[in-house]
């Protein structure tokens, strides 16, 4: 199986790009879809499981969003909306 090779800090700029392309606000799944599109990820990379039913992409994007929020570059206006 093809492994998801991006670290969470590799996802900072793509996360911000995704939000920009989505009009400045988006749900977690919309951000995830747009980042996958930006990286042109394969099905195998998209489905690579981190733990349980959480994909590696979801897990690492959660960390990326968390750090971007700490840096003051993102905010979540409502649960699951950034």
Question: In words, what does this structure look like?
Answer:
This protein is mainly alpha-helical. It has 4 helices and 2 strands. The protein has helices spanning 12-21, 28-39, 43-46, 56-70, and strands spanning 49-51, 54-55. It has a two-stranded antiparallel ribbon with strand order 1-2. Helix 1 (12-21) packs across helix 2. The longest helix has 15 residues, at 56-70. The termini are far apart. The mean pLDDT is 90.
Count of discrete alpha- or pi-helical segments spanning 4 or more residues: 4
Structural class: mainly alpha
> What percent of the residues sit in helical stretches (DSSP H or I)?
40-55%
Strand order of the largest sheet: 1-2
Distance between the termini: 31 Å
Indicate the mean pLDDT: 90
Largest sheet: 2 strands, antiparallel
- Identify the overall geometry: globular
Low-confidence stretches: none
| Radius of gyration, CA atoms, in whole angstroms | 12 Å
- Total strand segments: 2
| Strand content bin | 5-15%
Order of helices and strands: HHHEEH
Features:
about 80 residues, two-stranded antiparallel sheet, 4 helices, 2 strands, about 5% strand, globular
């Amino acid at each position: 199986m093809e492994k998801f090779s991006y670290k969470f800090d590799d996802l900072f700029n793509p996360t911000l790009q995704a939000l920009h392309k989505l009009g400045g606000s988006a749900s977690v799944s919309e951000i995830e879809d747009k980042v996958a599109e930006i990286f042109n990820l394969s099905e195998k990379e998209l489905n690579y499981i981190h733990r349980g039913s959480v994909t590696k992409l979801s897990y690492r994007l959660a960390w990326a969003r968390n750090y971007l929020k700490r840096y003051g570059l993102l905010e979540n206006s409502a649960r699951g909306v950034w």
